[in-house]
Amino acid sequence: MIPAKRPPIIFLVSAPSGAGKTTLCELLKQDFGESLYPLVTATTRPMRPGEVEGQSYFFLTQEEFARRVAAGGFLEHATVHGNSYGSPRAPVFQALDKGQDVLMNVDVQGAESVRAALAGDSAQAGPPLVDIFIAPPSLDILQTRLTGRGQDSAEVIERRLQKAAAELACWRAYSYLVINDDLQAAHDQLRAIVLAERARIRKSA
Fold first, then answer.
1. Contact, 89 vs 72, CB < 8 A?
2. What is the DSSP letter of 33?
3. Rounded CA gap, 43 and 57, in Å?
4. What is the reported pLDDT for 157?
């Protein structure tokens, strides 16, 4: 018998800062609508112009963030450039229970934590995890993009580039690699990955 439903999937997307992952995730949300639940990250960093509470991020105080960490409220959490970020646990499993796929936008460190958390959540097989790494064509192009955003000082950009070099070395830990040289081409590849993974026959171990 062909199964009536497939198991929902967690799509985890990582990239160095400035590689275009947020833009690409926004395009995926438009492609797949309610069938793909975009997890909103919590952070302690200040809200930037144009950002919306509960849509861009959940903006928390450091004290509230620490309380949620202590209560096991995050699948992963980390401090990046002096600010704390975390992926709330409950919304992920609520979406999966509804049959929705989940889209997670996390950095390399967060991806490692999510893999470990899902592997240790229960003795039973957890939800399928499809991890995708978005890379810039080169560090020089990444520097140009970061400078062009006009959001960070030269010192912050230098720190981001140093971190990016370390993150780029981790691409082999992922299932897929997408080079964001051309936004439309990268978007097409990401969309194809989602469609292919939704059709994949997952064999029991």
1. yes
2. G
3. 7
4. 84
Exposure of 142 by Cβ count < 10 A (0-12 exposed, 13-18 middle, 19+ buried)? buried
User: Is-contact 7 202, C-beta < 8 A?
Assistant: yes
* Residue among 71, 109, 107 at smallest CA distance from 88: 71
| 2-25 as b/e: b if 16+ CB within 10 A | eeeeeebbbbbbbbbbbbbbeebb
Q: Which residue has the tokens 């799509």?
A: 11
Distance CA(118)–CA(120), nearest Å, equals 5
**Does the pLDDT value for residue 178 go beyond 90?**
yes
Instruction: Output Rg (C-alpha) for the chain, integer angstroms.
Output: 17
Amino acid making up residue 187: H
pTM for this predicted structure: 0.88
How far apart (Å, rounded) are the C-alpha atoms in residues 112 and 109?
A: 5
The CATH class of the 10-39+100-199 domain is alpha beta
pLDDT tens readout for residues 25-73 = 999 999 999 999 999 999 999 998 899 999 989 999 999 999 999 999 9
